[in-house]
Amino acid sequence: MYDLTDQMQRIETITWAKKIRELLAKEGQQSAVDAVNDAITQFEADKVTIAVLGKAKRGKSTLINALLGRTDDVVAPIDVLPASSTISRFFSGPQEVATVHIAKEGKDDAKSIPFASIREYVTEECNPENRKGVTFVDISAPFSTLDPNVVLVDTPGAGSMHEHHDALLHAFIPSADAVIFLVTAQMPIDQLELELLGKIRAADIKKIFFVVNQIDATTPQDLSDAIEHNAKVLASVGIHTSITHKISARAAFEGKPGNGGLDSLVTEIREFLSVNRLTAQVDRLRSRVENIALPLLTQLDIKLREGLCSSTELDAQISQISESRKEMERQRVIVDREFLLEWNSAIDYFEQQLGKIQRQTQDHFEQKIAATSKFNIDTMKAQLPGLIRSDIDARIRPPIEELEQRLDACAQQLQRSLPYLDIHSGGGVSLRKLTDEEIKKGLLKGAVGLILGGGLPVMTASITAHLAALAVGVAVSATWNPLTWIPAIIGSLGITGGSAVATPVLAFIGGPVAMAAAAVGVAMVPIAWNKSRAKLKADLPSVARDFIAEVFDVIRTVKVRELRKAGELLLREYRLKTEKQITETEATLETIRTQRPTETQLALLAQKREAFQEVMKALPPART
Amino acid sequence: MIESIDQLLLLFAATARFAPDDTVREVLGVAQKRLLVLRYRWLQLNKPFVVAIVGLSNVGKSTLMNALLGDKYAPAGNYPCTATPVEFSYGEQLKMTVHLANDFVRPQWSFTDTTELLNRLMLVADEKQKTTVDEVSRVEVTAPLSMLQDGLVLADTPGFNAVQLDERAGTHQKTLDTYLRSRASQVFWVVRAAFGVDKMEKAFFERFLGELCDDIVVTGSESLDETQRLRWRKRVAANLRGYSPRFHFVSGLDGSEARRAGDLAQLDRAGICNLETQLRELAAQAVREQVLKNGVVELTRQLGDWARTYWADKAQTSGHFWNPPEWATLAENCKADERFQQLVAQLDVPH
Asked: Considering only Cβ atoms within 10 Å of each terminal Cβ, which end of chain B, N or C, has fewer?
């Protein structure tokens, strides 16, 4: 099956992974050992795991049945409602065997079931909300068209209303070697599908087969429109598809002539297997093991560097840290005050602008109403709330943008006072501030060292969390850009669906303007606006004025106040975290000083690190 | 009626302010919210009744519009395409008016047939014509359609959740949000039978259900039989806890075909006739009025039941559940109005 060189490479790769497993075991990292074991077992089985992924109701199970050469849906049930609720793995084997894996009190409990009962465990209908606790189901049989080297995997639909499906799915994705990404020809690619692709790429899976299903339910024009649109969307996130397979899984499953266009997909899978099987597997094993081992290597590194320092050096470090800490304490009051002062004065200035805008808006509408003839006053009355709202929206935009820039500058200033725990290459640690250059370049990435207080990512997270908590009814998404916190909030304050709003603070303050206005409008319209035309014309300016005042009042009393509070909360949280981390670092150093590692211990540590590094580097590059 | 609602709101607010514990405050908060929804809808009674057809991109909103209105009135295609809300209302003449966001000038066109209208609509509403959509807040179309004769306004809206490719990413969603909050009296939610309801749809539902949306239109239902429809409804309803929307199973494609061919039997089979009846009923002011009145009566009945049980459990011997001054005003006002007396009787908590 493999030639000699290939065999050698397989053995080398396994030996490499086992060595790392050994090192991890010596360090007492049991969960890491288990994870490496999983990866090795999968590699040794010498099977390529190909998972079918996509949203619910895209025809994943139908495609699986077709690829397995089944004529019924016993092994992969199909329904008009989202059916699959768990991960099913299909193997080629001599007999019909199905094994359900159930998580019982933290342990894996496997039991054999007849094919006829598979449905009871793998469908949402028979196992709602996974009450039976199924983790996955293994099914093997002499499937007529399943390559013996392939494990085919059926998955629950991503992003469905059944939220537990996503959890199962996301945990599974890293163990796939390749993915069949299934979309429908009837809908354009959507946000949830992009999210799923993000997960696939985060797991470092190199091979994705793109498949458009349900081509029998659409016209050729719509199909080519959809494919063109999808290609553009994928290109915008850096995925370039050379081939998109156009299929009808249903036609293939029903055994219609032409096999539903599945043949081109099967051919590409075969080619992938013959050319890339070994490479794909070695790549997967390497990246999985590396992801498990790297954090431990870094830990070892830090320990050793500390241990190599002499007592005097350690003392120096400790006193340096405590000096910096005192210095920071001294400055802290000033930094805090400056931050809050600037934060609040930015908001104060914005509030002044609000007053100005309010007057402008009021004047504008007074004139507008005055210029309206008595006969048009009814129309004017009806349009007024809408006109006022959009007028305020337009006027409020520039000062909000300015506010945003000032708050951004504020946060940057605070970041400059962040203590940075420097881990020197020669050994030892020290506490210092980041230079402007480092902040700009984004030192956070790749540098050895810790920014205390969690650095900007944590700050950003907390700003995001605070603002999100304040903006009622706005959903939070989990992503943010660590270095620029303002754009970050755009994402998090976006309305469900991941849409970006023009500016974050605008979303926060301006967005709800419309709602504030709507709420006020409901209360005002019936009371004041049912009048005779002459009276209406006379009264409308004052009604408009009151209406505008109410809207601005809501912005002032609710939104601006919350924004002020956000500054304080942010600062407090950041200070607390910094304090905790400095104390922890001091404690570590103190321990090392009082319990100096002996020469032998140090030598052992150095040996360990070296061995570790050696092994990590040792894996020969995969053949191409 | 609006006076009664306002009086009840005042009573709830005053009682909540002096409430003995959080439970009462919470329950009254919920009651206020429900009452505000009824109040909002009551105020809409005299306005044009705008039903917004809402759903994911390409879910078949436009096809459904065509099934309801006949001919081709809505631009369709297999990419996210309706970028701006389009309102259809009754008029002797085929006319189109464009409402701009920050201007009172409203470009207007008249047409002799729907092809001209559609071409013009494509220019304004199609995503591919990027330059024009920014300032357009909505488009109004009047047409001599019998279905709209009673004052019903049907609105086709931008689909959401598809990935927008231009630099104005996310604008569809925002346009839709603003539009629903400012114009829509009610929302009919369109989902496709074949794809079910996804996470994003559910999140959107939960923001509008109850307030604006009572109806879910399941299109493409020709593939489902009766049992399957029942299961479909049960599954989705179980995931929308706390709400009980009406489900309408229809086939947009069969419907628009039947409309073109004038085949009423097929139109009925496609579920379009039922949907039309529902829409017409809602459009009738008297029906909506009755529904709202019933809503207020039901709300006070339930709240009164809860309050009496709560008060009895507390074994209160002194004091009042309701804020005494507001209760007195309510009692005073109800003398004149028979219906009001019923509300008050339902709410009464003996002390």
From this structure: C
